[in-house]
Write a structure and sequence with these properties.
The protein has 206 residues and is an alpha/beta fold. It is built from five helices and nine strands. It has a seven-stranded mixed β-sheet with strand order 1-3-2-6-7-8-9. A two-stranded antiparallel sheet has the order 4-5.
Length: 206
Amino acid sequence: MEEHSISIQKTTRYYTSGDISKASRLLVVLHGYGQSAFFFLKKFEFLIAKGYYIVAPEGMHRFYLEGTSGRVGASWMTREARLDDIQDNFNYLESLVSKIQEQNSFLSIDVLGFSQGAATTTRWFEHSKISFRSLVLWASVFPEDVHSDFSRNHASKCFFVLGTQDPYFDMEIEKESLKTYEKLKFEIIRFEGKHEMNHEVLDSLY
């Protein structure tokens, strides 16, 4: 048995909020595993009043969350053919932002990734040609395949955000993650909460 691969054209989906003709800032937000980009975007819409145009790309792998019908969520990748998915995600995100920039010369571009979306964000950030004002990684372990000095190539403010009761971070994982992000010179922000977005923290970041 032999495994093969082929590159094809694929249609991807993304959601936006705000008036692109009036916005001065662009914020790209990547959802977590099994989430919907549509609903994830709603958590950031209050930032439109601060001059943001917000874009929420959706992971290219969609699936039913329970059984074979009902609510649908999306994923960025699995362990299968992961290198292909990493490259596909990179090409997708680079092309998307380039397309949006054709419609507006934003004063700044920010990117935020939540949970699984943060890992995809980190891999994108490492090699992107885009100049980001800030990078926010929320509730995510830093990917082992990303070079530890990646942030030196960007004049970006880097933040790691984590809830104090996040069930995916036991004491050992939390300790190691904080140590890693501190070493990478990330500003660490904690909030009272679980594996979720926090309005007050978002308001302070943007």
